[in-house]
Amino acid sequence: MTTPSSGHGSDPVIEVKDVSRHFAGPARLFGTSASVRAVDGVSFDIRRGETFAIVGESGCGKSTLARLLIRLLAPSGGSVIYDGQDISGLSESAMRNLRGELQFIFQDPFSSLNPRMTVGAIVEEPMQVHGVGGNSAERKERVAQLLGRVGLRAEHANRYPHEFSGGQRQRIGIARALASGPKVIIGDEPVSALDVSIQAQVVNLLEDLKEEFGLTLIIIAHDLAVIRHMSDRVGVMYLGEMIELGSTDALYDTPLHPYTQALMAAIPVPFPNARPMSEGLSGDVPSPSAPPPGCRFHTRCPHAQSRCAEEKPTLEQAEGERWVACHFWREIERPDAGLDAEPARAEATTQRFELYRSWSEAKTKADASA
Amino acid sequence: MTSATTTVKPEAPSRSESRIWNKLKSSKSAALGLILVLFFVGIAVLAPLLPIDDPTATSWGAIRKGPSAAYWFGTDELGRDILSRMIWGAQASLLAGVVSVAIAVFIGVPFGLIAGYFGGWLDGIISRVTDALLATPFLILAIALAAFLGPSLTNAMIAIGLSAMPIFVRLTRGQVLSVKTEDYVEGARAIGLSHTLIIVRYILPNVFAPILVQATLAIATAIIAEASLSFLGLGQQPPAPSWGSMLNVAKNFLSQAPWMAMWPGAAIFLVVLGFNLLGDGLRDALDPRET
After folding, report:
1. Domains, in order of start, for chain A
2. Which candidate from B2, B14, B202 shows the least CB-CB separation from A114?
3. Which of A85, A181, A187, B267 has the most CB atoms lying inside 10 A of its own CB?
4. Whole-angstrom Cα distance, residue B238 to residue B248?
5. Is residue B137 situated within a structural domain?
6. What is the 3-state secondary structure (H, E, C) of A111-179?
7. Under a CB-based contact definition with an 8 Å cutoff, are residues A81 and A17 in contact?
């Protein structure tokens, strides 16, 4: 079986092969309850130096997948291969040595920093653990550099996390993640807990740092607009499975899977009139402890046919680097994502824009002649 | 980007320790508790230096004398100075309170940390044993242990410490269970810290506050327990002074010499009140929800 993790001719830094994670259900007095299949048979690879995004609704298993990638959780099945080494079976102490190269940024900046440690100690700790950064004075120096690099000041090292705002705390978390000199950083919704205005700053910071330190970024998110801005490739998850995978632009322009299409249609746009009203998804996500047979999306899919309820689609290669898990992706009509359409403006709005344009042109001329 | 970095308040960084201290001082009852505790600790520590009579020196000429200029608190049935016995008794009571709670904390907290952090069968064993110990009333357990170990102040402290220990196991375990789910503990694992370091640097400092409160309140309970054991003859052995054994003797002379029972009773009441007020004040001051 070909999977997206077999042979692209490129250089994978992490290969995920048929990885699963099942959680035991609540204990019962009689019999056993069904386990929750948070991640079920997911395969893909992450290329060195790319930004890979994983998207999906709440509860689709994306945070579990993120933790499986760096063995914060042990997989129930399948394997995760980092730099040619299968880390899914490594002992806890052997894994500890690798953790300097695989770092994690948490979603909630208010619970991800130890309230009893100073910012300096928080950022310095990974260097101590992995024996990098030289002696104590050199490490302090590097802490100051890192704090400066993420947009904080060196003297902030003596303060405690509760003295900072959410955005600043997330920067501290990023500085800590960078401290041990990692090769891969996984962000579990790194900006979703922040104000929208701060989100852009942190996203830009992550992009700059990626270039500067030659990182591979894996971003988990549910905000599709953020993903489009930062990532090279996107994997879409639904109920513990990866249902579509492809380069960001291709996937956003022509989503192949009906679920991806529904997600794209749900992106808020500045001019709603520019897009025909699409029918949103109806119904709830089925329980991951009792996923529907066949295609897991068939209960909510507008294009579902009888085959979908019986036969499970596998992730198959569509055009080029596109992968999709749907029996009928060729037949399904692809709606225009509609993001690029020229918005229709009201007449008054148009007049105001004209007025502003003529004013700014006049101003430019005046400035030039002055 | 600079705008985000300038929102930190420019004034001197407020340390949480000084905030707790200020809250403690501003509460009247907590301040009263602190004063009472400091007073008794002061006389206990200074007992050898104070210009008082030998607490074991008997005087046949002054048996069961009421309070007077010579004997401020009166004398007991052997003519010993009650004031000096009270002061030396404070030493026994506070020592018993502090040492037995220290025993309880140093055994109970590590077990609680292990049970809460690792879970599984370790937690199962530790929790079941704790439940079994908690099912026995505190004082009964202490009396049984003290009787088993033999009557002496040291054995009474060990007995009280072991009896108070299960509370600390259960409290610590519960706190660890809630702290363990915080992202920063997972984050500590993500940077590759060992379990020992995670427990010492991440778990313990964040479960410390409720343990401190419980320890303060437990000292009050332990002082009563020591007085009870001494009353029953299982604690401090005569002629060494102890509030509990003083009460035991005084009960025989309640009508003839009521002061013999009054002073140790009042002292136990005040020192226990002091520790309870201090513990309550600490609980309020350490509560992060009201700032």
Report:
1. 1-101+182-370 (3.40.50.300)
2. B202
3. A187
4. 11
5. yes
6. CCCCCCCCHHHHHHHHHHHHCCCCCHHHHHHHHHHHHHHCCCCHHHHHCCHHHCCHHHHHHHHHHHHHH
7. yes
CA B85 from centroid of its chain's CA atoms: 22
Q: Do B183 and A176 touch (CB under 8 A)?
A: no
pTM for this structure? 0.80
Chain B CB contacts of A173 under 8 Å are: 187
Convert the pLDDT of each residue in A17-41 to its tens digit. 999 998 887 777 776 677 888 888 8
State the CATH number of the domain containing residue B272: 1.10.3720.10
Identity of the residue numbered B233: G
Question: Using the beta-carbon criterion (under 8 Å), do B191 and A125 form an inter-chain contact?
Answer: yes
CB contact at 8 A, A218 and A206: no
Chain B residues close to A164, C-beta within 8 Å: 8
Q: Sort out which chain A residues have CB atoms less than 8 A from B183's CB and list them.
A: 106-108, 111-112
Q: Which two tokens stand for residue A262?
A: 């529904």
My answer on whether omega of the bond before B239 falls inside 30° of 0, hence cis, is yes
Q: Within an 8 Å CB–CB cutoff, is residue A152 touching chain B?
A: yes
CA distance A344 to chain B (A): 34
Q: Which residue type occupies B220? A: A
Domain span including residue B194: 90-291
B128 CB-near residues (< 8 Å, 6+ apart) = none
Residue B22 maps to a domain: no
Q: Say whether residue B251 is in contact with chain A using an 8 A CB cutoff.
A: no
Q: Does A2 touch chain B (CB under 8 A)?
A: no
- Per the structure block, which two tokens stand in for A69? 């990638």
Whether A237 contacts A71, CB under 8 Å? no
* CB-closest option in A129, A153, A168 to B191: A129
Q: pLDDT digits over B223-242, tens only?
A: 999 999 999 989 888 888 88
Strand extents, DSSP E, chain A: 12-23, 36-47, 51-55, 77-82, 85-86, 102-105, 184-188, 216-221, 233-238, 241-247, 316-317, 323-324
Tell me if residue A12 falls in helix, strand or coil: strand
How many domains does chain B divide into? 1
Q: Which of B2, B183, B205 sits opposite A112 (nearest CB)?
A: B183
Does residue B180 lie within any of the structural domains? yes
Pick from A114, A158, A198: CB nearest B4: A198
| H or E, element range at B132 | helix B120-135
Q: How confident is the model at residue A6 (pLDDT cuts 50, 70, 90)?
A: very low
Q: Does A112 touch chain B (CB under 8 A)?
A: yes
To which residue do tokens 């070909």 refer? A2
By C-alpha distance, the chain B residue nearest A113 is B184
Cα(B197)–Cα(A183) distance, integer angstroms: 24
| Ranges of chain B whose pLDDT falls below 50 | 1-13, 291
Q: Is residue B16 assigned to a domain?
A: no
pLDDT digits (tens, 9 = 90+) for A39-54: 888 999 999 999 999 9
Q: How far is CA A312 from CA A247, A295, A300, in A?
A: 24, 5, 15
